[in-house]
């Protein structure tokens, strides 16, 4: 594992990373500050915010939680590092999908090379796009490893179809939303030595599965969207962290927790 930020190393080594995502296109400073305070009061590892230098300066003025900025704009990322960002992410692509922007693997590689020339000694996380088939995802992950990228992240296209499974309906539908991200986590984590973070609709039910499939941690954003106050946010983040800590014995986890069959979802990725 090769990380520049010493505050992150222990969390990644123990595979207990909890990244709190405020949203790549969120400019609601009140909401961002609430999440930042919850992250500071809880066991969150770091905060992921939009690449906005004003937001970075405000957060760094009162919080010691490491700050990650997400964008596909090299200049924005560079300016945020100058403003105090601790790490950067090429990802959280949701806003770009809505604009019909889908990066090819070669475009991702070119973007990474350009950003690394600008930012030499800061950790870079790259999201592996969900719309690539599994072979392409693994190939991209391996190419990024060769470029000395520090962290990878998976994402998911939300699968909203509900099955008539009354006994496990709540659990199934909760995990179903993050199923593609979990599948990518399993395949990619088995193919590279870079730490992998599972993100996109991850919650307290899917978090232990992400760890079981090889993730070093998870990213949560939407799971906090219905929390109205800092106390509830803090409690939920701690609940997520506790599920990572308690599931260090993966054999016990496998024997006692429902694990979905992802063979069906592999067809969606081909």
From TrEMBL:
UniProt GO cellular component terms: plastid
Swiss-Prot/TrEMBL keywords: Chloroplast, Plastid
Record SUPFAM superfamilies: Ribulose-phoshate binding barrel
InterPro entries reported for this sequence: RibuloseP-bd_barrel, Uncharacterised_Ycf23
Subcellular location: Plastid
Family statement drawn from the similarity comment of this UniProt entry: Belongs to the ycf23 family.
Name of protein: Uncharacterized protein ycf23
Lineage: Eukaryota, Rhodophyta, Florideophyceae, Rhodymeniophycidae, Ceramiales
């Amino acid at each position: 594992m090769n990380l520049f930020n010493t505050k992150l190393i222990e969390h990644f080594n123990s595979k207990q990373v909890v990244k709190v995502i405020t949203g790549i296109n969120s400019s609601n400073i009140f909401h961002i500050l609430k999440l930042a305070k919850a992250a500071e009061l809880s066991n969150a590892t770091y905060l992921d915010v939009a690449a906005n230098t004003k937001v970075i300066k405000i957060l760094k003025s009162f919080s010691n939680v490491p700050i990650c900025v997400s964008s596909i704009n090299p200049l924005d990322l560079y300016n945020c590092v100058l403003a105090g960002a601790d790490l950067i992410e090429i990802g959280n692509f949701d806003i770009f999908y809505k604009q019909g922007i889908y990066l090819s693997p070669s475009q991702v590689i070119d973007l990474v090379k350009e950003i690394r020339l600008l930012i030499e000694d800061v950790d870079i996380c790259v999201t592996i796009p969900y719309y690539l088939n599994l072979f392409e995802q693994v190939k991209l992950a391996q190419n990024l490893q060769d470029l000395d990228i520090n962290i990878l992240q998976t994402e998911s296209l939300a699968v909203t179809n509900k099955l008539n499974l009354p006994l496990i309906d709540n659990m199934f539908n909760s995990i179903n939303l993050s199923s593609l991200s979990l599948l990518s986590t399993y395949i990619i984590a088995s193919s590279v030595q870079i730490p992998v973070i599972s993100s996109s609709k991850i919650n307290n039910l899917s978090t232990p599965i992400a760890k079981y499939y090889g993730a070093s941690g998870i990213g949560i954003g939407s799971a906090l969207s219905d929390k109205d106050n800092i106390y509830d946010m803090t409690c939920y983040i701690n609940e997520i962290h506790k599920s990572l800590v308690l599931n260090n014995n993966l054999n016990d986890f496998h024997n006692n927790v429902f694990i979905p069959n992802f063979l069906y979802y592999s067809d969606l990725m081909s």
